[in-house]
Design goal:
By secondary structure, the chain is of the alpha+beta class. It is built from 3 helices and 9 strands, in the order αββαββββββαβ.
């Protein structure tokens, strides 16, 4: 005869794990107002390994003109994918001066890496897919604000 309480420890552990996740949701990230050419966006700042790894995962929506800015420790070749990310996004890879090097569209749940061509990526800005195209933003244009230095005036 099977004891009905045999599976109880497993069920209890799963219930406790679910309760802990609900009781300890990810902490809100610092955010900054960025200027993308003449447009303003509000971006959460991902600048630690845990915040960069989580990114925009598990979210169902992103408000218009909101996104996430990834801040790399030093310029490098970057690569993004969309594991556990439900929102269609576009990513702009930026150099240390905030100049847009490349823009790529990303697709929900697609785990295919989208690498940068450049090895000078210091930041990556994710916004709702198509935001850059709708606003006429192309490589060579600049992003400033938050951790990105203000453009320097040319003599």
């Amino acid at each position: 005869m099977k004891c009905p309480a045999e599976g109880l420890p497993l069920l209890l552990a799963l219930a406790l794990l679910a309760a802990c996740r609900q009781a300890n949701p990810p902490q809100p990230l610092e955010s900054a107002t960025l200027t993308v050419e003449r447009f303003t966006v509000r971006a959460e700042i991902a600048d630690t390994p845990p915040t960069m790894t989580r990114g925009l995962m598990f979210r169902d929506a992103l408000p218009p003109d909101h996104g996430m800015l990834f801040v790399f420790e030093r310029p490098r070749r970057a690569s993004f994918w969309m594991r556990n990310t439900r929102i269609p996004l576009s990513v702009a890879y930026l150099d240390a001066d905030g100049r847009i090097l490349e823009i790529h569209d990303l697709f929900p749940h697609d785990e295919t890496p989208v690498p940068s061509y450049s090895d000078q990526v210091a930041y990556a800005l994710e916004l709702n897919r198509g935001w850059f195209a709708r606003h006429g933003i192309t490589p060579g244009m600049t992003v400033s604000g938050g951790p990105i230095p203000a453009p320097t005036a040319e003599p």
